[in-house]
Amino acid sequence: MAEWDLRKLHILRTLRERGTVTATAEALHMTPSAVSQQLTNLAAQLGVPLLEAHGRRVRLTDAARLVLAHAEAVFEQLERADAALAAYAQGEAGEVRVGAFPTAVPALVVPAVRALRTTHPQVTVRVREAEAAEAYDLLAAGDVDLALSLAAEAPSAADRRFTHVPLLTDPLDVALPPGHPLAGADVLKLTDLAAEPWIFGGSGPWSDITRRACEAAGFSPHQGHSASGWTAILAMVEAGMGVALVPRMAAGRQDGVVLRELTADRPVRHVVAAVRKGGGTGPPVARVLRALRDAAARPPAPGRDS
Q: How does pLDDT run across 245-262, given as a tens digit for each residue?
């Protein structure tokens, strides 16, 4: 029977996720030569080649992918074992590390933490703000136990590392300057704003969301100004420099602008929680997930005059 070394399998799995030996070494706090040596030893133990040259890099062989396909079940079971040991040793006490994208922190994580202080004061939540896509990297690396992200940023359905829990569908409202001709309109569609200068980031998820929403409505948005922070975006909207899409989850943070709910072509984004496969069975993580679901069940009111 082949000799299975979990530590070396973890290195191989990380190489699959990170793509290069150098990136793998950085993620695992090892040297590139140590990573290469460990994978060479693993190949010898298993009796199959695991890496092959691909230009100046290496890539996983079919044998390596087969090994990892079976190893995923082992990693999942170990996550379950960790959760069971935590439940045995700590009962319902414990620390849960949560990675969450910026608007999810005040809208979902903070209300969940407040509720847990009353219902389960021995559950400690440690929050790490991260962009939606980065949250999955942190979860895969073991840097957080639970990630709040957007469904659009999730890995493909073929990725077996994570379990996803839908939390809410977050509508996007439009922010207008107070004196805008459409600020008092009874009905407002994205296409009504096709000729307006739009304010959104030059790259990243919010840029993608804005572009996709406008293109789905039938036009390509003209980017009048580029900004990624809400303070800058809303200050420019208030000054009459353009319009912007605003997530409903951030509605309580808007000052000096008019928020209008869109009608027929109203865009949305889907907010999800994610845990590593088998990692959601421990009581502390389960308590935090339940608190997040409760917070998500109380969505903010639609956009209105500020």
A: 988 887 655 668 999 988
SS3 sequence, the chain? CCCCCHHHHHHHHHHHHHCCHHHHHHHHCCCHHHHHHHHHHHHHHHCCCCEEEECCEEEECHHHHHHHHHHHHHHHHHHHHHHHHHHHHHCCCEEEEEEECCCHHHHHHHHHHHHHHHHCCCEEEEEEECCHHHHHHHHHCCCCCEEEEEHHHCCCCCCCCEEEEEEEEEEEEEEECCCCCCCCCCCCCHHHHCCCEEECCCCCHHHHHHHHHHHHHCCCCEEEECCCCHHHHHHHHHCCCCEEEEEHHHHHHCCCCEEECCCCCCCEEEEEEEEECCCCCCHHHHHHHHHHHHHHCCCCCCCCEC
Nearest alpha-carbon partner for 50 in 87, 85, 98, 2: 2
Q: Which residues on adjacent β-strands are paired with residue 128?
A: 99
d(CA 118, CA 116): 5
User: In one letter, which amino acid is 171?
Assistant: P
Structure tokens at 215: 């293109």
What's the rounded mean pLDDT across residues 268-283? Answer: 85
Contact present, 146 and 135 (Cβ < 8 Å): no
Summarised one tens digit per residue, pLDDT across range 44-96 is 999 999 999 888 889 999 999 999 999 998 888 888 888 777 765 665 677 89
